[in-house]
Amino acid sequence: MSSSSKQLRLSRRSSELAQAVPQVMARRVGRMMQAGPVPSMEDQQEFIRMGMEKLEAFGEAWWAMVLQGSQVQQQFALWWMQTWWKVALGGWMHPPTLSSLSNGASRNLMNGWLDVTLCGVAPVHRRAVANARRLNGAGA
After folding, report:
1. Are 93 and 118 contacting, i.e. CB atoms less than 8 angstroms apart?
2. Computed over its alpha carbons, how large is the radius of gyration of the chain?
3. Is 5:111 a contact under the CB 8 Å cutoff?
4. Distance between CA 34 and CA 38 in Å, rounded?
5. pLDDT of res. 72
6. Whole-angstrom Cα distance, residue 128 to residue 112?
7. What is each CA distance from 99 to 78, 93, 96, 107, in whole angstroms?
8. Which of 20, 69, 76, 83 gives 132 a disulfide partner, CB atoms 3.0 to 4.6 angstroms apart?
9. Which residues does 120 contact at the CB level (< 8 Å), separation at least 6?
10. How far apart are CA 54 and CA 135, in angstroms?
11. Which CB contacts under 8 angstroms, 24+ apart, belong to 45-50?
12. What is the pLDDT of residue 106?
């Protein structure tokens, strides 16, 4: 997937999050205010769910980013070693320019870190959008 399509995907997910999060917060804060000091069993379950899903989403996002970040580092190290070998073994006759090396490194890093960001946003996005649908559909 190209860098521009990854940027578009991240932009779309961020926009959907920006719409879903305030809706979910408004519904839940309203529910807390209605519940008062002695919430019903249904309200208590929703409040527990609220806290648990945040912990789960954070954990999933963290591990997804750690794993993807490790993969990005490995890919970059491999790219760097291949580039070094090209220069060391045959590049002295046709050495790459510094700008071509810099552009390749920048492109690889940009693509990799967009992947890391997308992996981290995915669990949060999935839950927030699902909650917005669930809470708006239920009319709670």
Report:
1. no
2. 23
3. no
4. 10
5. 92
6. 25
7. 19, 18, 8, 12
8. 20
9. 61, 62, 64, 65, 68
10. 16
11. 46/140
12. 80
Other CB atoms within 10 Å distance of the CB of residue 117: 18
Joined together, the tokens standing for residue 44 give 């208590």
CB 112 within 8 A of CB 72: yes
Nearest to 132 by CA among 60, 41, 53: 53
In single-letter form, the type of residue at position 138 comes to A
Q: How many H helices and E strands in the chain?
A: 3, 0
pLDDT for position 139: 46
In the chain (140 residues long), the average pLDDT of successive 10-residue segments reads 90 96 93 93 92 94 97 88 76 62 77 94 95 78
Q: What is the distance of C-alpha 15 from the center of its chain?
A: 13
**Euclidean distance between CA atoms 58 and 38, whole angstroms:** 29
Reduce the DSSP state of residue 107 to 3 states and report it. helix
Nearest to 136 by CA among 36, 40, 28: 28
